[in-house]
TrEMBL record:
The protein's name: dTTP/UTP pyrophosphatase
Pfam families xref list: Maf
Site-annotated residues for Important for substrate specificity: 13, 74, 156
Active site: 73
Gene Ontology MF terms in the entry: hydrolase activity
Species this protein is from: Dokdonella ginsengisoli
Cofactor field: a divalent metal cation
Annotated compartments: Cytoplasm
Stated family: Belongs to the Maf family. YhdE subfamily.
Function description: Nucleoside triphosphate pyrophosphatase that hydrolyzes dTTP and UTP. May have a dual role in cell division arrest and in preventing the incorporation of modified nucleotides into cellular nucleic acids.
Amino acid sequence: MTIRLFLASQSPRRRELLGQIGVGFEVVDVDVPERREPGESPQDYVSRVAREKAGAGLLQLGAVPDALVLGADTEVVLDDEVFGKPADAADAAAMLRRLSGRAHRVVSTVWLVSAGREEHATSLSTVEFMPLDEAAIAAYVASGEAFGRAGAYAIQGRAGRFVRHLEGSYSGVMGLPLYETGELLRRFGAG
């Protein structure tokens, strides 16, 4: 049986990370609303969105035999508040001010789904930022790197210099925890 792996994401970071572990895959474009339900824990929210992405991808591929779809979601969490992608420059600056000098969690969950099976894994990381002054925040937001990223930063980019301490998965903070992803793929016979 030949398994065809599909990534339910348009994220260039996820495509790059998945490529790093040497598995072949195709991309399927999905549009899943990313809104936290009232009373939903951050970890449950991230898992639900990742599963919905994988499920939406599988639905699109109904005619593809042996399709295996990977869905992932990553969010920044501070004081039980989920920091998604910033709406604009003011929102990005506000997020960075709140993260400044503090430790926050990054929750990254991966779901693998096929016609007859589904499994998931979650990576929890803690990232501590150095104190950021207004000039550093303004320069970072002006770079454009804050947009389209949970918590308004990219650890693999200019914001890497803000990170005083990381405990957990660097790739998970980027958007796809490679250890957990590799283990899931292995269990499905796809990695």
